[in-house]
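Incident log, structure service

09:12 report received: a user says their structure output differs between two submissions of the same chain.
09:20 pulled the input from the user's history:
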Amino acid sequence: MSNGHFYPVGIPGQPWGPEERAAWLARQIKHRSYADDVLSAIDKLRNRFDVTEYGATDYATEHFSLLVVRSRDWRDDLPLMIVTGGVHGYETSGVHGALQFLEQHASDYAGKANLLVVPCVSPWAYERIHRWNPNALDPNRNFVKHSPAGESAALVDLLEPLRDRALMHIDLHETTDSDESEFRPALASRDGKPFEPGEIPDGFYLVDDADQPQPEFQRFVIDAVAKVTHIAPADARDEIIGSPLLMPGVIKFPVKKWNLCAGITNARYATTTEVYPDSPRATPQQCNDAQVAAIRAAIDFALAHP
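09:34 re-ran on a clean worker, output below:
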């Protein structure tokens, strides 16, 4: 270890081995309860929705049930809309926005669409307020069959039979100040690369699929969210987090090539939300509301353009 390194774990220029990963894991502290915050909220939905365990993760002595919430009036002739949150456990409004949508609005789509909602993909990381799982793996770069990340493998297995039936998939995320202070430095250290500081955008934005862009869909969602919270402006290079701006509040990634959650299925309409919870212009409730507005707009647009 080097005291002059940009991250407390690792040696400059050397990827982490087992010793460094163990040192990193020892630094992780449980800050909140998946059972209290998420499972208890899902339990309250059981009288209106079908709730099942689609998998589980076991880390040391900790067992986490992975739950999916589905429309009770599921019909094969209805379009399928997928909502995922908590792929990165520290991105709080993704989890609580999905739960808020289920509690307040999901019933509005009864008889119109099949809803499949996974509020918290990564429970261990939710409790640690972290991006990675305990193996220092980012679930959102590992959504492949037989993934080394158990959280990712379980979700891929759940959605695999529905790959060609999904019409819309919205994956709920946040971009936080800790991306720049903790998670990007940790990533660079883990991979033995130099850390290059970036810029955190102040506001909400979306990530489109570079290989199947849907600009009108993205614009519709952005317009809906703009009524709830502010949209992130481009930086001086006309970019957001290093990606060129396609339109106000929208960038694009090759989601399938990068094994991102929004690319698991072949949904025609796919997007990844990014909320900025550290903004002085947004409260935690506004962040949740922005996620809910995005979900509702995404479903509404897909229903209107099947």
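09:41 both user submissions now match this output. Likely a transient worker issue. Closing.
09:42 reviewer note: The chain is about 30% helix and 20% strand. The longest strand covers residues 49-59.
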